[in-house]
Amino acid sequence: MNSPTVVDPPGCGCNECGDSQYVQLDRASARQIAHMVAGRMRNHTARELQVTVTTALPRGSESLLDGRTSRIEVRCGELSWDVTEYLGVSHAFFTQL
């Protein structure tokens, strides 16, 4: 069986969700959400996603590039995923967007 390639809306009952080609948002894992926000899975959710990045700036730092990302959280309504381990903890992911 192949991994899902698309994240669909919560509660979707389409054939693709039924045969695991797609995954419903409310059943998606943190890894799948990380893939979606990184552009490796398509987003068919029709929902607004909020991505919160917590970055610690060392004393005396002059820019975000000096910081270390300690947490990346994706929220959609009442759903949330900690995707830090899948997207890394450096600024590299964000500077490549």
Overall form = elongated
Model regions low in confidence, pLDDT < 50 over at least 5 residues: none
| Structural class by helix and strand composition | alpha/beta
Count helical runs: 4
Strand order of the largest sheet: 2-1-3
Task: Tell me the β content.
Answer: 25-35%
Compressed to H and E, one letter per element, the order equals: EHEHEEEEHH
The tally of strands reads: 6
Query: What does the largest sheet look like?
Result: 3 strands, parallel
What is the rounded Rg?
Answer: 15 Å
Gap from first CA to last CA: 30 Å
Overall pLDDT metric: 88
Range of helix content:
10-25%
Q: Characteristics of this structure?
A:
97 residues; alpha/beta; 3-stranded parallel sheet; 4 helices; 21% helix
What report would you give on this structure?
This protein is α/β, with parallel strands linked by helices and 97 residues long. The chain has helices at residues 15-18, 30-37, 84-87, 92-95; strands at residues 6-8, 22-24, 42-43, 50-56, 68-76, 79-82. The strands form 2 sheets. A 3-stranded parallel sheet has the order 2-1-3. It has a 3-stranded antiparallel sheet with strand order 4-5-6.
Task: Give me the secondary-structure topology.
Layout: E1 6-8, H1 15-18, E2 22-24, H2 30-37, E3 42-43, E4 50-56, E5 68-76, E6 79-82, H3 84-87, H4 92-95
Parallel strand pairs: 1-2, 1-3
Antiparallel strand pairs: 4-5, 5-6
